[in-house]
Amino acid sequence: MERIEVELFADPGNDAVVRLPPRNFPGVLIQGDSLSIIRGDVAEIVEACDQGDVGEAREVAALLLSNLDELLDRYTAALKAHDIPIPFYQAP
Q1: What Pfam families does UniProt report for this protein, alphabetically (predicted)?
Q2: Which of 28, 32, 40, 79 sits between 20 and 30 A of 51, alpha carbons compared?
């Protein structure tokens, strides 16, 4: 284990926005339990697709997309609050 200093751009929590040295842009630190939930959601989508249940797959995918949109909104808001350019294209 190595201890390093990082920059924190949003309140710490399950999805802290931090910048690690020597990265140019911050990233999102996702806690392990939250990562496991995301993985479970994707597995549920795959299982529904395998069973031909497109409606269930779409429902779970829509919820996952909404959660990821919230995370991305949090990330972009943190960068904008610190005058850091967004490192990807954002549709208008």
Answers
A1: DUF6959
A2: 32
- The residues facing 28 across adjacent strands are 17
Amino acid making up residue 90: Q
Q: How far apart are the first and last CA of the chain?
A: 42
| Distance between CA atoms of residues 66 and 64, nearest Å | 5
Positive/negative CA dihedral, 67, 68, 71, 72 = negative
User: Residue with structure tokens 């999102």?
Assistant: 28
Count helices and strands (H / E) in the chain: 2, 3
Q: For residue range 58-81, what is the model confidence (pLDDT) as tens digits?
A: 999 999 999 999 999 999 999 999
Q: What is the pTM of this model?
A: 0.86
- Dig out the tokens for 55 from the structure: 């409606």
